[in-house]
Amino acid sequence: MYQILTLDELSLRLQRRLNRVERFEFSADFTRPGAIFVRSAQVPDQLITENLLVVGRAGIGINNINVKACTRNGTMVFNTPGVNANAVKELVLTSLLNSVRPIEKAADAVQNLTGENILEQAEQIRNHYIGGELIGKSIGILGLGAIGEQVARACFNLGMDVIGYARQPRNQNYFEQVYALKDLLSRSDFVIILLPLTDETKGMFNSEAFSSMRKETILFNFGRGEIVNNAALLSALANEQIQGYVSDFPSRELLQNPKIKLLPHMGGTTGKALQDGAMAAMRNMRDFLIYGTVRQSVNFPDVFLPFTAPIRLTIFYVDQPKIFSEISQKISAHNIEIDILASERYEGYVYTLIDLDEADLPKIRKVTNELDQIPAVIRLRLLKNPNWAPTIYL
Ligand SMILES: NC(=O)C1=CN([C@@H]2O[C@H](COP(=O)(O)OP(=O)(O)OC[C@H]3O[C@@H](n4cnc5c(N)ncnc54)[C@H](O)[C@@H]3O)[C@@H](O)[C@H]2O)C=CC1
Ligand SMILES: O=C(O)CCC(=O)C(=O)O
């Protein structure tokens, strides 16, 4: 039985769907779980124990997980790229349109009208709510991944001049690519942050960045709060270096400022995006726990191998010269045949699936004990094929 800690809500319906073969137990209280399901909640480091095989992030940002510690521990971390990209794109567009038309204020004013001739009165006040248009305006997009690409395309189709900031050349005809942040900031009426939070992006919007911006510019942050230095932002707003700030990441010092609009980190919060993210996370988690296969990982290489043998070894180890021959020699020294294997490298580590043509468990355990002694081996698992003869007990 695998214990899955749910740090964010996971519907009972999805738990049942994952657990058709009843090999999983779900709880929000496990202290040494074998797996963690999470959205944006912080994953405490003390949960990264030798029990922890996998952390599944429904969504994309992984700044709430200590990925380096997970890798050192042989814990696979994956996310679910793209599942909420459309939801975020639609919220970005809603926010953009709202920033040029005072829709909420105008609608509130209409509700306060009294008397019989409401339409006539409404038409008399409409000139108090003259708005702007997006067409012909310039928009700078930082982060041209799943969301940024979609936002860029939609803005192009709205008739905007789209400028994109990316490190690698992109072959798209709906935005002009620039490589210098300053270039984008000095030319954009709207600037949209759709970057992940990393060492490189943290505090990217500092006083120097704000000094390159235009006083009419509205800055939108749907990436992560820490990408913007709040002290520099508040001073840029006070000194009219930019016009306004819209962010999906509220914090105390930004509250009650008329130039700032804050949303409750709701970019990915649509029924569809939540359902798709949780489904994808559960599928990846089940496949890793039961078959050892890896999909959409951020610290393991993706590896897939149909499971047709009785027993599978999964080995995560440091990539070193001759390490694989050491592993295979130890297996063959016990007269165990390797049926088939799959192996991939990723950033100094290797993940290998080895299917054994052998069902004699005591014999296999001798080998796994020896493999576990190899210093480069970080984590080794022995998996029973769930579709094989029921005489093997692990
Ligand atoms: N507000 C919300 O609810 C949501 C926020 N997000 C945030 O948006 C971010 C982006 O999401 P996706 O587009 O789905 O991810 P993605 O991984 O598809 O795209 C991220 C892009 O940023 C680029 N990038 C990374 N560092 C960069 C740098 N220093 N300079 C320039 N480009 C850089 C990457 O190359 C990639 O193209 C997430 O990491 C997350 O922080 C994502 C989903 C929902
Ligand atoms: O589900 C969430 O945490 C919101 C979406 C998000 O921020 C992400 O996917 O990175």
TrEMBL record:
Its EC number is 1.1.1.399, 1.1.1.95. It catalyses: (R)-2-hydroxyglutarate + NAD(+) = 2-oxoglutarate + NADH + H(+); (2R)-3-phosphoglycerate + NAD(+) = 3-phosphooxypyruvate + NADH + H(+). The keyword Glycoprotein does not apply. SUPFAM superfamilies: ACT-like (SSF55021), Formate/glycerate dehydrogenase catalytic domain-like (SSF52283), NAD(P)-binding Rossmann-fold domains (SSF51735). InterPro entries: ACT-like_dom_sf, ACT_dom, D-isomer_2-hydroxyacid_DH, D-isomer_2_OHA_DH_cat_dom, D-isomer_DH_NAD-bd, NAD(P)-bd_dom_sf. Pfam families: 2-Hacid_dh (PF00389), 2-Hacid_dh_C (PF02826). Keywords: NAD, Oxidoreductase. Residues 312-385 form the ACT domain. It comes from the Bacteria. Coiled coil: none annotated. Pathway: Amino-acid biosynthesis; L-serine biosynthesis; L-serine from 3-phospho-D-glycerate: step 1/3. Transmembrane segments: none annotated. Catalyzes the reversible oxidation of 3-phospho-D-glycerate to 3-phosphonooxypyruvate, the first step of the phosphorylated L-serine biosynthesis pathway. Also catalyzes the reversible oxidation of 2-hydroxyglutarate to 2-oxoglutarate. Belongs to the D-isomer specific 2-hydroxyacid dehydrogenase family. This is D-3-phosphoglycerate dehydrogenase.
